[in-house]
Amino acid sequence: MPKNKTHSGAKKRFRTTGKGKLMREQTNARHYLEHKSSRRTRRLAVDQDVAPADVKRIKKMLGK
């Protein structure tokens, strides 16, 4: 039986913590940052937990 391949898009977007929790980056932090307040860009820099409804599917994509 062949090995399962990791989903290329998922491995770029999600990371797993030491305890196995999935993290993602927030949107709106890529460009036009000069128009956004410093407070907003600092808030956007923090990684977020993945929603519980999506965890099972994403873990499968990552081969976990």
Walk me through this protein's architecture.
This is Large ribosomal subunit protein bL35. Residues 1-44 are annotated as: Disordered. One of its GO terms (biological process) is translation. The chain is of the alpha+beta class and 64 residues long. It has a single domain (8-62), classed as Factor Xa Inhibitor, CATH 4.10.410. Helix content is 38%, strand content 12%. It has a three-stranded antiparallel β-sheet with strand order 1-2-3. The protein is elongated.
Largest sheet: 3 strands, antiparallel
Which segments are poorly predicted (pLDDT under 50) over 5 or more consecutive residues?
A: none
Give me the count of strands: 3
Strand content of the residues, in percent? Answer: 5-15%
The strand line-up of the biggest sheet is: 1-2-3
* CATH level 1 class label: Few Secondary Structures
User: Into which percent range does the helicity of residues fall?
Assistant: 25-40%
Q: Report the CATH architecture.
A: Irregular
Number of domains as seen in the coordinates: 1
Helix-strand topology string: HEEHEH
Overall, the morphology is elongated
Classification by helices and strands: alpha+beta
Mean pLDDT: 96
